[in-house]
Amino acid sequence: MAGSTLQLLQGTLDVLVLKALIFGPQHGYAVARWIRDTTDGALEIEEGALYTALHRMEKRRWLASQWGVSENNRRAKFYALTEEGRQQLAVGERSWTLYAEAVFKVLRTTEANA
Amino acid sequence: MTRDRFAGVRRVLRVRDVEGDIDEEIAFHLEQTVEELIAAGVPPGRAREEADRRFGNRIHYRKELTRLDRSAATRRRWEGWWQDARLAARRMVRSPGLTAAIVLTFALGIGANATMFGIIDRLLLRAPEHIVEPGSVKRLVSQYMDPVSGAPDIDVVMTYPDFIDLAGMGSFSAVAGYSGMRLTVGDGEGARQMAARVVTGGFFGLLGATPAHGRFFGPEEDRVDGEPVAVISRGLWRDQYGDDPAVIGRTLDFGSGPFTIVGVAPQDFTGVDLDRVDVWLPMHVALSRILPPGTWELRTRAGTSTGSTWWAASRRGCAPRPWRRRPRRSSATAVRTRDRTIRHARHRYWPRR
């Protein structure tokens, strides 16, 4: 079961990262911070894994990267969604919502309904 | 993202450093985290620990990121080449005129170089055709002191007595002399000029060539009172006689009696020089019958005797008196046939100082 859990986590992380970039290009630190802030720190994600996801998706051409300057004037690598990345986000969002709803339905079921 | 015009160039040069980029990216992330924690009131030492903890095993992730980026770079490179190739093909199809011009330019360039190499090879590098052992056939030249400047010089042309001396000395396995000239054959409307070589009897034996048809003549026929015989070139046999085997026995008239054709030289045989030859005649017979009085150039070739080096042969060549007595001549030197050709070309194109 460990394998499938990892698979799920990896897929989830991809969706989160893609979503973080929908508002415009960001460097990795801003992505990590946005996820943490948005989830109120509920998800314990190793930031190294987050960078792995960024680079993997860049290799797949879901993301494009470019070196730029951060808010505090430092050189940073910025990631932006490509058209393919946008499509992947839509697909990921839909399947994750279906998945979550299905799990939810099961968990919300009371004995009376069964 | 704007289209990078120099992406192709950069792709070829591969200036980007994958690991350097990853280190810089991680360092930026950790510093930002530490700054954020310090701003939130965490002491610097603790902030650094916390940043490291949040990132996870840095060595592991660094390795993982490097692997990802390298494989991505490899993939991009191949895709880049493929795109370049497709773009090039599309452009070529779109402008066939330009493509044709470029192809033609290449073709001409390659063709011109190949032709030039062929000429150089023929002129300078390769020995003339049909010489069985080109390495052992050499030119004999006479060395002398220039009477005016006193500088040593060589002469490729010999006097007939010089030649007779050399041939009689026994230093070489064979010595042959030859001279080129243009002779008129026939008379009236049928008269034509031929490139002729008068050669001493040992000439064909020295080179070791095999006739294409009939036979060559030998030393026993090259006498003042010898029979007038002639060997014609393969080209002449084809052009004038239509490859007719009955050409043997036909005659060539150089104005003072007929010379009987006894053989045909092999294809492209030109003796030791490279210019075209139509007919070879025995020197002594030609001397007594058709050559006008006066002087003509006599060039000499020699073959090594077995077990004797060229140096020894030519040294021995110096010894006999008859030709050392002649004031201009001091010694004879053997020069390889190929060297001769090179020097010949040099003399033609780079005049002597």
Could you characterize the architecture of this molecule?
The complex is a heterodimer of chains A (114) and B (353). Chain A has 114 residues and is of the alpha+beta class. Chain A contains 4 helices and 3 strands. Chain A has a 3-stranded antiparallel beta sheet. In chain A, helix 1 crosses helix 3 and helix 1 packs across helix 4. Chain A is globular and about 60 Å long. In chain B, 46% of the residues lie in helices and 19% in strands. By secondary structure, chain B is of the alpha+beta class. Chain B is elongated. In chain B, strands 1, 2, 3, 4, 5, 6, 7, 8, 9, 10 and 11 form an 11-stranded mixed beta sheet that branches. The C terminus of chain B is likely disordered. Chain B has 12 helices and 11 strands. In chain B, a hairpin with a 6-residue loop joins strand 1 and strand 2. Classes of the chains: A alpha+beta (114), B alpha+beta (353). At the A-B interface, helix 2, helix 3, strand 2 and strand 3 of A face helix 2 and helix 4 of B.
